[in-house]
Write a structure and sequence with these properties.
six-stranded antiparallel beta sheet; about 160 residues; homotetramer; Thiol Ester Dehydrase, Chain A; globular
Chain lengths: ~160, ~160, ~160, ~160
């Protein structure tokens, strides 16, 4: 085939599928990947009873985990293996049991090996729950095992 | 009773016990409260298989959750209800399955309603895994339901 | 009088004028207030020789000062006295002598006494130089000495 | 001389002297380098009238500039050219005209090309004014033009 360079949109989707398949932590948290386009990702999580802290609201660490996961998809879905070097989060409102949260990550800057990504977490009623900013660092390697068009084989 | 003002060390311990008992999220993550003294806390977490991300290292969100929990104990254990307003974390090294992580939180500053707390996460071999800084905001109310001496409730 | 409630746009302008008149630091740095609308501000600064560090680029502290000033105008221009409690900045590209920098601050969130503001610094060619996030804390008092219509004091 | 590898303490001092000589911004702010040892630096600044903002306290940007300068010395004084990639600051108390501020920077972590440095700003009475955390990124090159022993150039 001559069209071996995958479409960026398809590549993003394939990267996110491969990432999620091996990510036991996001699976444990019930996080779902709703959308993944180059430099952007939209994830969701429902607040379960076992995610509540002593104030009966979602533990901040799990809000962070949702945002951090969205960040990871946004910065890896061009198939360049990329890690988080640091992140900050500001908590604006609480999430309660049963709330459906969505986290949307967007690339703000990427040059050389480093990038900046912003994530917003919203509640189902549109309330802004938290804002997150992640700093990424690109390492060697790719997300997908090779650069051929993604097949439906399972990734390790 | 004349001994109504509890010893600060005992109060810190009682606050942490009460907090942990109702914190389903830290229980779900297997986090243990090793020490809680006024403005300081030491917690531990073992990295389980379901805490790994696609790189087979502990998900950054769960490292954050450990640090954030240590921060919560350190800023609430003087029995003044206090929330996290924002946090930042820098990731320095990875944690793998089976690693025993400890997070030590210390108060750096507290005046008026706000405070700053630093947390370090270390691996069992002493390697520094992450540094975390939390900003706290004191709200109305106390951690313990009243100021009477705590009962001998079990600690997790 | 029926016109006692000032127009928000005029109020923002008046607040920024009053703030800038007494702000010796921003004057010393040659910072100019280009626009000030409720929750938003646009400022500029030209990089002078005495703003360069040893790498012959603008000192990061002075980039921060520009962003922080834009943040201050955006969070005070509804005439509620507000302070910065903390800020973070990420440096993306350098600014050199003679560069004309603009910093645009926008409110991301404001509820209760606290707010989050994002600032971008750009170079004259549109290059993104830095991103900044500020956390605000509203105190007692107003920016303008009273709520009467502002006088025609000069803007810097 | 055969002992061409300089003593780390002397090297740190020489790096700071070389950096400061070309740093017009820190000179403009009257910043002085009090100590520079490997991975650590202590700087001072006196709050001048032209450093005050509209609240008659030191502009946060100039507090940041002091902390950022201390960070720069601490992360460059092993003679490896290093830049700030990002920083955060939390403001705890105000500084007024005439206050003598000191900023002490210390390395918290350094591995590969990146590092974490903490800076505290104190007032002459010991009050903690601000805490700052900087992330460094090592680039090619050295601080000193070559590795020959530093000459007796004057320190600011």
């Amino acid at each position: 085939m001559t069209d071996s360079a995958p479409d960026p949109e398809q590549l993003a989707q394939a990267c996110s599928e491969a990432m999620h398949e091996n990510d036991y932590a996001t699976q444990m948290l019930g996080i779902r990947i709703l959308e993944s386009t180059p430099g952007r990702a939209l994830l969701s999580m429902v607040v379960r009873t076992d995610m509540l802290n002593g104030h009966a609201v979602c533990h901040g660490g799990l809000l962070f985990a949702l945002a951090d996961s969205a960040f990871a998809h946004a910065c890896n879905n061009t198939n360049k293996a990329t890690l988080a070097s640091g992140c900050s989060i500001d908590f604006l409102a609480s999430a309660r049991e049963g709330d459906l949260l969505t986290a949307e990550a967007r690339e703000r800057s990427r040059s050389g090996r480093t990038g900046i990504y912003d994530v917003e977490i919203q509640r189902q009623d549109g309330t802004l729950i938290a804002v997150f900013r992640g700093r990424s660092y690109q390492i060697r390697g790719s997300v997908l095992p090779d650069t051929s068009p993604p097949t439906e084989e399972k990734t390790a």
